[in-house]
TrEMBL record:
AMP binds at K403, G404, A405, G406, S407, G432. Keywords: ATP-binding, Isomerase, Lyase, Metal-binding, Multifunctional enzyme, NAD, NADP, Nucleotide-binding, Potassium. PANTHER family: ATP-DEPENDENT (S)-NAD(P)H-HYDRATE DEHYDRATASE, ATP-DEPENDENT (S)-NAD(P)H-HYDRATE DEHYDRATASE FAMILY MEMBER. Pfam families: Carb_kinase, YjeF_N. (6S)-NADPHX binds at residues 61-65, 128-134, 157, 259, 320, 366, 433. The gene is nnrD. Residues 13-214 form the YjeF N-terminal domain. Its EC number is 4.2.1.136, 5.1.99.6. This is Bifunctional NAD(P)H-hydrate repair enzyme. The keyword ATP-binding applies.
Amino acid sequence: MADMFPLYRADQVRAMDRRAIEQWGIPALELMTRAGAAAWALLQAKWPQARRIGVACGPGNNGGDGYVLARLARDAGCQVHLVSAPGGSPRRNPARAALAAWRSSGGRVDSFDGMLPDVDVWVDAIYGIGLSRPPADAVRALIERINASRRPVLALDVPSGLDADRGHAPGVVVQAHTTLSFVAGKRGLYTGQARDVDGDVRVDRLGLPPIDTDQDPPAAWLVRDKDLSAWLAPRHANAHKGEHGHVLCIGGEVGMGGAVRLCAEAALRTGVGLASVATRSAGVAALVAARPEAMTHAVEDAQALAPLLERASVLAVGPGLGQGAWGRALLAASVATGKPVVLDADALNLLAAAPATLPQAVLTPHPGEAGRLLGCSTADVQADRFAAADAIAMRYQAVVVLKGAGSLVAAPGRVPVVIGAGNPGMATGGMGDVLSGVIASLLAQGLPAFEAGVAGALLHATAGDAAARVDGERGLLPSDLFPHLRRLANPA
């Protein structure tokens, strides 16, 4: 598989800290000093003109990191305003020592009184990685003031108020422009609400040895555009279309033929050998005219679908399928084949109404569909996307691609993967139809289901980013991805 980046839960990172202190002999204050120094170096690199630095410190070791940064900034000639969060007196010896060093250098600590000084950059050192509840009222006011300042914010470890494990903020949260994660990447920084508040995420190991993922099994993996080539090897010179599979796209109820057309073209642009479409008679002429390379068939019932199912190697069911009798019959016939199948859109809504285990399936729900599959609300899904993806995978015994900012790929017995690509412009109707075709195409070309889910979601998101760079995110159409899918499916 690709050289993926490991991500961890907060308790795992704390265990790494303890190992550094107890086994490698690195004092806790030394780790804190390294963290503060790394943060100060990043602040200088990001905002070299900043001369007035605001640092908001809480009572834990995160606050201690802030005291170290404040002292280094003051030593460099900056004007530093250090604000103590309500209840912010250090609780542990390393943070107390960092505060003492700050004071001995001539620094002062101001208690938050509802107002903040005018600075060039704020450093958020209020909470660390352990917060899973809303901030206390007094701290909430401080966070709201920092956000209202409209100054850039460097968050240390995680933006204060964000759950580092789930990527969800149960209350107010710091709006960071950059987040520096210490020791290891925290999985919650890369999905869901976190992507609205953590900005540019960096990871600094603080001089510790590289992570041994056998000793420290990740809680998730992060994949990025550079990883695509791991799944998309060049074809041999004597290749023929039969080697690259046959995807049958099933959908396109009356008035929704465009959805299944997007699915079929995505499969073709991703390199499938053959793509067929089973759709309503009324949509055949338009589909043939729009994309003649897709073999389009009029299918009015499951009996007419049977010979097409037999010839296909992979099925993509759901784009424009509808939830009427026609859609239900075609879905039932498709899953009964036992062939690899990608289910999206209305196929997922029908599955939610009649749950079944589908070990050959890849499910691609957005958060609303995920909620229906689990019998919970969209808000419940978004509050813990990792738990939701895992729960769907276990309930349906299938690979799951939970779409959204930082899409997640989960499967029974597999470590989840976070897709480190994609942009808000992709939040538009039809993008999921394209994703279904991409994943089905990679399945047909021989990738196992989990790998096809990961590679397909990454290819789709990376193509979306490439398309957005051309003319911007707003107004991005699903069909804008097609030329980029083809280019990115052929890495140099």
